[in-house]
Design a protein that fits this description.
- The chain contains 25 helices and 21 strands.
- The chain is an alpha/beta fold.
- It has four domains: 97 residues, no CATH class; 94 residues, Nucleic acid-binding proteins (OB fold (Dihydrolipoamide Acetyltransferase, E2P), Beta Barrel), CATH 2.40.50; 193 residues, Rossmann fold (3-Layer(aba) Sandwich); 157 residues, P-loop containing nucleotide triphosphate hydrolases (Rossmann fold), CATH 3.40.50.
- Strand 5 and strand 6 form a beta hairpin.
- It starts with 22 loop residues before the first helix and ends in an 11-residue tail after the last helix.
- The structure holds adenosine-5'-diphosphate and magnesium ion.
- Magnesium ion binds next to helix 11.
Length: 697
């Protein structure tokens, strides 16, 4: 469906073409994702007011918003607590008080008894009768206050008012007559799902007709809203499918399934792989042996033992003469991988390199050089590995841990680090976030999936209890007892603010309190504001059992492994989402001792928090927890994208819209097979020009 008309496309019309938008307003609109007129149409209201019909005063209820038409009975300036203007109006069905705290003398005069006016406002209970405080009002002589459609409220940003956004969307909607907004999804593909075409959907969402189902519109369940979400999800899936198609046009190193190095590594372990680890390893190795780029997601609950699987894959790649990169989202996690890999590989005569953002210039230069020269066969690091100046001699395998913290862009940057123009490294992505299948189909449409669905033997599920923080004293006694038994303990401080400095402060308060109550114990503190060297030193001490108690912020959420730690206290547990609680709790229960987790909470708990805590107490199964988190909070939390702002959708929500995901696959695959122009159009609209790598269909 390519446009046959000469009408200019709305995404080529700059915002400054709209009345009232100059360069400075355009700049203010940019944080809302508005760069052209099409963007205005995809910026949707989050609520509506009904100003389309008059309500009768006699039928008003407190809490509702309404337009009324009535006659002034009496207006009076009174001095009670505050000077206020009270205007009593009546429409024949009842009386209502209008209350103003700020008013001019001229306003007082306007409200002569007998004058007719229309008011809009929220109805509240007043001392004598129902009231509206500071209603919007018009005298009859100024025309009617009624609107033809429901009044939208848009998410806004500093310096941009609601009326501005309404004027913009008014203009954008009327420009639909003269301009092109291509509906890339042919109507016949939508028939089954009973959804409207694009333009009708947009009109409905921005200017709902009187009587429209506002609840459904606001919760995103209205067909008009769903139509837009569907389109966005299709575009997202197409983008990922294209990444995959492009990758598969390339070759990748052929890595033989068996190598002496991998056998030596496996023989040096103090344990044998679980069946699930072996199965996933076999899938990975078979995949790397074909000469086609591997794009594989390995899912495994916390503690399932993903790292050794990655290491064995790495051993094969190194044996075959290729370099391996292992990347983690945080310093602590990357450092831990460095330790594990060094432990495993250096005794086999292979050194493991390190590349983090915190290296000094000279260290960094020499690290980069030995990677480029190929002296370093395995290198572990953080985002620093993505940097442009990092060039591999012949990268054969890229391992990414906790991929949900990395964006699609970074994944692409990595792919471009292959040995040659047409050769890509194999990619192994590990995530401890159990992802419900339907979600994985859309969020990871470019990846094959392997699941380690079994924990190493001997693990006992973590016992979880919830304790009100007023009883913190008892909890501290419990900690003392655990320490006396030689167990190690985590004390996790959480704050709702993402601010590292506030978190650090809370942790410092906690350690002061604990040091006072447990003077005999060896207590350490890690938080995000420590230098990575100091953080590392403390983690090492804890690992080496030189510390009994580690007070930490949520920096330890991901991946840290200390098997002797068997008790965890989580403060303000009610503030954390299920996935995060599960990740934290996964730090204990890694050894053979029975572990426990105490969720300290501030009463009273909200319904939702109660539910979360009760699930944590009931189950240790990451998949159950993820599904529940999806139901309670949405996909951004489950995938961990909300914190990073990556890969968020503008309109869709994977949790809410998950019933459409089969349709998303069907329509997406149909477009991919038959309508390449539509694919390009959708990707351009939703994913954007700057992400060109998607575009080359
Ligand atoms: P995760 O999947 O959370 O990344 P890790 O790879 O950190 O888990 O493994 C957790 C712990 O389990 C580590 O101490 C690791 O050495 C150990 N481990 C891994 N596989 C096994 C196994 N098959 N048997 C016993 N312990 C194992
Ligand atoms: Mg891990």
């Amino acid at each position: 469906m390519v446009s046959t008309t000469e009408r200019p496309a709305l995404d080529t019309v700059p915002l400054t073409k709209l009345k009232g938008v100059g360069a400075s307003v355009a700049e203010k609109l940019a944080p809302l994702g508005m760069h052209n007129v099409q963007d205005v149409l995809f910026h949707l209201p989050f609520r509506y007011q009904d100003r389309t019909q008059l309500a009768q005063i006699g039928t008003l209820r407190p809490g509702s918003e309404a337009v009324i038409a009535a006659e002034v009975v009496i207006a009076d300036v009174v001095f009670r607590k505050r000077r206020s203007l009270l205007v009593r109006v009546n429409d024949g069905t009842g009386s209502l008080m209008l209350r103003f705290f700020h008013f001019s003398q001229q306003q007082v005069k306007q409200f002569e008894p007998g004058k007719r006016l229309q008011c809009f406002g929220e109805v509240r209970r007043g001392p004598a009768m129902l009231e509206m405080v500071h209603p919007e009002y018009r005298l009859q002589s100024q025309g009617a206050a009624l609107e033809e459609t429901l009044t939208p409220f848009y998410p806004t940003t500093e310096g941009v008012q609601q009326p501005t956004l309404r004027k913009l969307s008014d203009q954008a909607l009327s420009m639909l007559e003269q301009h092109e907004l291509v509906d890339w999804i042919p109507g016949e593909l939508l028939r089954e799902s009973n959804l409207p075409d694009l333009v009708s959907a947009l009109k409905m969402v921005h200017r709902p007709t009187p009587g429209a189902d506002v609840e459904a519109l606001m919760s995103g369940l209205h067909p008009a809203h769903r139509r837009l979400a569907l389109e966005e999800l299709i575009a997202h899936r197409l983008g990922l499918r294209l990444l995959r198609v492009q990758a598969q046009r390339n070759t990748a190193p052929v890595i033989p399934v068996n190598s002496a190095l991998a056998e030596q590594l496996q023989a040096s372990l103090s344990f044998t792989l679980t069946d699930a680890q072996q199965r996933v390893l076999d899938e990975v190795l078979a995949n790397m042996a074909t000469g086609e780029p591997m794009l594989r997601l390995v899912q495994g609950d916390v503690g399932a033992g993903k790292t050794i699987v990655a290491a064995l894959a790495a051993a094969n790649a190194v044996s075959a003469g290729y370099q391996v990169a292992l990347m983690a989202p945080t310093e602590i996690l990357a450092e831990q991988h460095l330790l594990n890999f060094s432990d495993w590989f250096e005794s086999l005569g292979i050194s493991v390199g390190w590349l983090s953002g915190k290296l000094r210039v000279a260290q960094r230069r020499s690290a980069i050089e030995s990677v480029a020269m190929g002296q370093q066969r395995i290198v572990v690091g953080t985002h620093a590995l993505f940097q442009n100046d990092v060039v591999f001699e012949n990268l054969g395998l890229a391992i990414i841990d906790e991929q949900h913290r990395f964006g699609v862009h970074q994944r692409m940057a990595l792919r471009n680090k292959g040995a040659s123009e047409t050769s890509l490294p194999h990619q192994l992505i590990m995530t401890a976030t159990p992802i419900p299948r339907t979600l994985a189909m859309t969020a990871y449409a470019d990846l094959d999936c392997s699941i380690i669905d079994e924990l190493p033997p001997g693990r006992k599920p973590v016992k979880t209890v919830a304790v009100e923080s007023a009883r913190r004293g008892e909890v501290v006694s419990g900690v003392a007892k655990a320490i006396a038994e030689g167990r190690q303990v985590y004390w996790v401080c959480t704050l709702i603010e993402e601010s590292e400095s506030l978190q650090a402060e809370a942790a410092e308060d906690a350690i002061a309190m604990l040091q006072e109550l447990l003077p005999e114990s060896r207590i350490g503190l890690v938080h995000g504001r420590l230098k990575s060297r100091d953080k590392d030193a403390i983690m090492q001490q804890f690992k080496a059992q030189e510390l009994d108690l580690l007070v930490a912020t949520t920096v330890i959420e991901v991946g840290v492994d200390v098997p002797n730690a068997s008790l965890m206290i989580i403060e303000n547990a009610e503030r954390l989402g299920l996935s995060q609680l599960h990740q934290l709790r996964g730090r204990v229960g890694r050894g053979s001792a029975q572990s426990s987790c105490i969720l300290l909470y501030q009463a009273p708990l909200s319904q939702n928090a109660k539910e979360r805590i009760s699930i944590m107490r009931k189950t240790n199964d990451g998949f159950v927890i993820a599904q529940k988190d999806l139901d309670l909070r949405g996909a951004g939390e489950v995938l961990g994208t909300r914190q990073t702002g990556l890969a968020e959708f503008r309109i869709a929500e994977l949790g809410r819209d998950s019933d459409m995901l089969d349709t998303v696959s069907d329509i997406g695959d149909h477009l991919l097979a038959h309508l390449p122009d539509n694919v390009k159009g959708l990707i351009r609209r939703w994913i954007g020009e700057e992400r060109k790598d998607y575009g080359g269909v």
